[in-house]
Records
---
Amino acid sequence: MYRAKFVRALFPGRFQPPHKGHGHAIKWILEELSDEVIIVIGSAQESHTFQNPMTAGERVYAIKLMLKDMNIDLNRVYIIPVPDIFMNRVWPRFVEVFSPSFDVVVTRNPLVRELFEELGYKVVPQPLVNRDTYVGTKIRRLMVEGGNWEQYLTSSVASYIKEIRLVDRLKLTLGSE
Amino acid sequence: MYRAKFVRALFPGRFQPPHKGHGHAIKWILEELSDEVIIVIGSAQESHTFQNPMTAGERVYAIKLMLKDMNIDLNRVYIIPVPDIFMNRVWPRFVEVFSPSFDVVVTRNPLVRELFEELGYKVVPQPLVNRDTYVGTKIRRLMVEGGNWEQYLTSSVASYIKEIRLVDRLKLTLGSE
Amino acid sequence: MYRAKFVRALFPGRFQPPHKGHGHAIKWILEELSDEVIIVIGSAQESHTFQNPMTAGERVYAIKLMLKDMNIDLNRVYIIPVPDIFMNRVWPRFVEVFSPSFDVVVTRNPLVRELFEELGYKVVPQPLVNRDTYVGTKIRRLMVEGGNWEQYLTSSVASYIKEIRLVDRLKLTLGSE
Amino acid sequence: MYRAKFVRALFPGRFQPPHKGHGHAIKWILEELSDEVIIVIGSAQESHTFQNPMTAGERVYAIKLMLKDMNIDLNRVYIIPVPDIFMNRVWPRFVEVFSPSFDVVVTRNPLVRELFEELGYKVVPQPLVNRDTYVGTKIRRLMVEGGNWEQYLTSSVASYIKEIRLVDRLKLTLGSE
Amino acid sequence: MYRAKFVRALFPGRFQPPHKGHGHAIKWILEELSDEVIIVIGSAQESHTFQNPMTAGERVYAIKLMLKDMNIDLNRVYIIPVPDIFMNRVWPRFVEVFSPSFDVVVTRNPLVRELFEELGYKVVPQPLVNRDTYVGTKIRRLMVEGGNWEQYLTSSVASYIKEIRLVDRLKLTLGSE
Amino acid sequence: MYRAKFVRALFPGRFQPPHKGHGHAIKWILEELSDEVIIVIGSAQESHTFQNPMTAGERVYAIKLMLKDMNIDLNRVYIIPVPDIFMNRVWPRFVEVFSPSFDVVVTRNPLVRELFEELGYKVVPQPLVNRDTYVGTKIRRLMVEGGNWEQYLTSSVASYIKEIRLVDRLKLTLGSE
């Protein structure tokens, strides 16, 4: 794809865990949309809950593994953890603080789209790729239920998830108030 | 250097701005100490003050420029912004949350050394390279006084500093209460 | 109503959105209870959620519109946004910090009554006026379901709600995790 | 029980309210496990909610009453309130800041066990004593439903609960959004 | 002054205390610049320090007294307390959350100007009126030194300052660490 | 001393470190003023700075050692760490949350006296005992300068300070920005 001007895209998510859907989106961004992509890991302070079992650092590492598995050029990627600020309208400005400047935001989340548009950003949705299957909540549920969650992750990420025994950790979060 | 086991080092700093002293340290780490290095950008929520003029995102970007200028392999480097937590004893654990796992910490700051040692980490100092000159506070002072600050930065970082007009910003911070 | 001594009342709420029930209460306060009223807008940091769709600033503005629609004397009213502090027992003291001094609190919320009474305040309930219909949650639900929400707001507030396209924003909050 | 070395145990909980189950656990700790016990009162900033009706200070006081009722030596006990930090992985380190040093953690909560084990602590479960009945949530439910909650508390604690009219407070929390 | 379009101005400050210099600026804004003015009281969470002796609520009240003393139309004025967020770049967005929408910012503070300009706002300075004398820090110093601070305040504000015994409070702040 | 009614006193401080001056005050309180005393350890989140070198937990422990050295009855004492809230006017209410109820506050700090009096508490000063010498700042300075700091502490506290190598830690804090 030809671009007259250098373009950098922002791709926010929680990445619990990083799955092939994320990988396809990043690939599409770098092929069709922009020269570089900033992967923003939201709720970075969270871990050891069902919604957010992995620490931000584990997610940084797993995303890098996935990018390697999918032959994505790491030199074109930033991976930036950002903690929650609990103020929706302020949040995109807060993301700006942690991130190199960007020209476009990639998301299918309607609230995230609205919030970045309010700050003046162009927002585009990533293409739909098996939306049903590539959903973090569904993958985490498969993990606790003993389903085949590995199919939604690249092989190195699946191995890493096993190495850190994330499935056990996820089950722990169900037992606590 | 031969290492029997994969090693990852953590190199924390504020990088206001990232200077050649930082670059030499990172080079030394990757040559002599570890396979990968995690550059932790502290006080990530701060900007537009004399102590912390650049945003975390600007520091992420400038560090990447510096690494390229110095031909350091980006694939071996993580750059992670971490906000302040204002609790010294808890801080190294907080850094762990944002960071892939690491084996050794590189710092010459005696308090940082103490805090990571208390959490059980091995800490080593980077070699001294013109310690007098490679100091962030001194470089920022040269900026507001019209001195030759460019010499302490790699060329792309110096250009970027000019592009974002950091010297003007730094002067603004002096006029405010 | 004759009062030997100047009296100022505090009227706390979230005002999502400000409706005629709020307006009637304020009118009653200024006619029967006190010389001035402080309208405290709680959860001021929140916006773009189903519980709290409007920003505090939008609520400040809409309350002023409602007061004008109902011919309430603005000179006798303070409108003060107060963010959450997430500590129930401390909250009334926190409200005191943001507010001119007051003599009485007006609320029908049993927990709010308890918390201000614990700090030594006299608390009185506003009269019940169509309690069923004047409830923020119900009005917001009508908004997303296409019901006749306008009837519960004064005309300028209803126009403003349309101008800022709050109904669209409210629908966005349903689609996000 | 003979111990070659002085041992101090940490016993974390929310103590809403402190019940005989807690008392039996503390007794067992001091008889079988350690020389001293640190009772950590979690969620210390919370009060006046159904999950956390009592303030931390009220819990400190009620625990002391219970220890006296059960003839437990106060000289071997620390009672330390600790507010929430909302970062699971960091939390045990945060507890360390508020607490004298300890050698072992006593808990049956699987997440708490995991979090302290990650920081390197030995964790042991207290013996099960009528687990069904000694559960804070169940006792609070009995309070609002008019059941016989007193049987689960020592007599001084039950009297104190009445003195501060906690049952009324608990009911208030049900009526608020 | 004729304006084709309705204009609202934002006038931020700490107002410790509100003095005639503030009053002149507000008068000028309403005569020359805008239809309405939003007075933003910064550092609203602070009080009982030398830099910020008055609570936000006391400042709200004193500003209203000053506006009345100077015959400024209260219907054209909003007074909004805003706590600190301790992130310079995010701060103007945070102010937006608490405030009705505005078109222009009035300030002589170079950092405040920069921060609002970065968010896209037009910023204009208020005219200089005895800049030397109308400075909060100087007035507070006169208070503790027994100087003639009253001359810089309108009469009702000076009376109110005496009523709340602010000079005594200011002296207390000097004696504490 | 005869008291018709049970009295509990609050004694707030930072206890960096706990010295004989604190011990004499506590003794006086229990002999002359009240039946029980609550020792509130302020700035509990802080450690490893020159102003606050010890963690709250270390201070809890050292205070208990001091009380034993001075034969003070531990059954009459509560030791409660309280983190900073950074809002002066709210702070005494925040202390109330963490503490059993109390009737009187003991302090010579004029700001602390004012803040508790504003909340309606009676405040009394402890007697002056060698005020010059029993000052935390002075003792910490002696520590870094190699002076005779031990004389101001009871013997067990002095031993504990040596055991945790606090003097080394204090020196570290001087070398960091």
Note: The radius of gyration of chain D is 16 Å.
---
Amino acid sequence: MSEPADGEALLAVPGIEVAAVAAGIRKPDRLDLTLLRLAPAATCAAVFTRNAFQAAPVVLARRHLQAGPPRALLINTGYANAGTGPEGAEVAATLCAAAGKALDVPAAAVLPFSTGVIGESLPTGPVLAALPGLVAALRPDGWARAAQAICTTDTRPKAISRRVRIGGYEATITGIAKGAGMIRPDMATMLAFIGTDLAIAPGPLAELLRETVDRSFNRITVDGDTSTNDAVCLVASGAGPALSPAAGDDWARFGEALQAVCLHLAQAIVRDGEGATRFVEIVVEDAADAREARAVADAIAHSPLVKTACFAGDPNWGRILAAVGRAGVEGLDISRVRLWLDEVVVVTGGGRDPAYREADGQRVCAQSAYTIRVALGRGTAAVAVWTCDLSYDYVRINADYRT
Amino acid sequence: MSEPADGEALLAVPGIEVAAVAAGIRKPDRLDLTLLRLAPAATCAAVFTRNAFQAAPVVLARRHLQAGPPRALLINTGYANAGTGPEGAEVAATLCAAAGKALDVPAAAVLPFSTGVIGESLPTGPVLAALPGLVAALRPDGWARAAQAICTTDTRPKAISRRVRIGGYEATITGIAKGAGMIRPDMATMLAFIGTDLAIAPGPLAELLRETVDRSFNRITVDGDTSTNDAVCLVASGAGPALSPAAGDDWARFGEALQAVCLHLAQAIVRDGEGATRFVEIVVEDAADAREARAVADAIAHSPLVKTACFAGDPNWGRILAAVGRAGVEGLDISRVRLWLDEVVVVTGGGRDPAYREADGQRVCAQSAYTIRVALGRGTAAVAVWTCDLSYDYVRINADYRT
């Protein structure tokens, strides 16, 4: 498998047609409405935000997903249709019904997704008016346009295609995502849509997506804020051959390719994090179990002090240790904790390593991407998460928004 | 009781003598070493940081506190003596021994406190050289000078005195604190010292301090980072009459006065939070229990999105709802959630109240201090916490530090 990269040509996925138009939902002349039409044999899995304040489209998409196999995904930007009460639920239902009618499928076969401002109504007028043109524009190679159309404050689209050989068949995976980190619940926030032409039963597809999201989208953080509208949706169009976990190696290879696609999209979101100037990988290892490894990694990744030090290019290991110390690890023996910046040993025995030179730490932290690695000395569990720094621009963007 | 205010004259506390000098620990000509001498009858209680990376003086102060009643508190700024390994433990022990000798008390009767840079050695030389002059400078009215001497990056000292009538006796409580929020573990961070002239047994004193800290210092947050050196220390000098919980009303009145002193010092820390431009009270009520009220209040208080909106004066209730939604409240019914900015009703039924006008929210959020109030509609538990906004200056201060 080649390394994924943005800008590579996106591959069409047999069994999935894509269109995007400028419907004028909130601003004129901006792609803001996207439709994916799925072949009748398609299966679909999705994971949604765990935030208790779930947007109306999230609630409805969950319900439609249980009702039967989806035939279309309808995605709008501009307004998130979140915090909009019963009226928002009606709006989402109206749009699904209209899209279903235009595509000649039941309303319940349409999954709605919205992203944009929270708490303001999503107007149905522009969407209803744009639907005929949207349907007419459906085509297999519409992915790149859709990647643009789902963006809100993103500075660039996020998209990737991979090929993976399954038996004698060259299968395709194409994914697009939007979100400038999980940093903006009111531009609510992270959406990803991934399609493959294989035929995969709903059960294994859902399980695979859950596992993969846990190792990709759920491992990124910009500021710990999660959104009301986050969703990742995986479609298997069924145009190609069937694949199941029983296929052994083929299933594993497909899982790896899917993981690579999701990881690329997830990391692209962090790299495009609002105000981000550095991409930081945080690895926690030698933990007693995965839960505590993750707790320590999150404490580091969410620490404003660590993140401002990253912005400054400051190898401020005291702040990292303090974050480790407040992660709630029961009985942590600080004399066993070690810390590296890339390959530079900084902390051993719970304090500064005698051989550590500040200049070496500064060299690492001056890079645009580096790794903070912490070993807890308690076991064998490990985790990696990805985050970015906290800059003036983060404050500017989030303080200026809505003004 | 009158409202507490900084700048009021600090009252001496019979049985406690205080001195502060410029020892040249890290910078010349700056008050950086403080000593409190306690009468032989004094009792003492203290609470310390729960961070697993506890500084050497914290570890030693805990041990000394268990060994018997303290006779002195020795406080230095400049270096936190944290992340300094076995050598740091030796430094703390050396300083306690020297202070004990100078005061003619056992080393174990000296409680050490340090604040300043993490991970660099605290030099003993300047402290040892300054001790004789420090002891000679001890006097009952040294509190105001001590309030200055314990500061690091604080823009102003934090101190308050209160009188409280216990039986026929006019008792005194004087407290000083340092810390510009819990935002800076490497200037590590929050210290508070409170003295009264009453005689209180160690058990009730410790319990009262714990309860009071839970309703004051533990309710403030600047960015959720906690320090390696945080400590709050309460001394009852025994110069005045005895007081115990059996005293009923008198005990309650003393508790109230102590709470007022601690709350004033705690809120003064938030008001002086690095880069803070606004002081925000967050009240969560109608919660099922205190734990979930606190979880929701903390989620709001720690949200960078809420805090940048506060900086901007933006009544961004969508961000507040999103923080409520991710606080982990099991089975939260969002249709019962209500939200106010001061007295302005913003959210009812889980969405924008029909009568809410953006201009009203803007008027509240333009103030230098206001209250965000959230009702969960689940029960009767409530909590208040205090925080500040997240500004450009927060990033500047924490990114520039150590450069």
Note: Chain A has two domains: 16-271, 279-400.
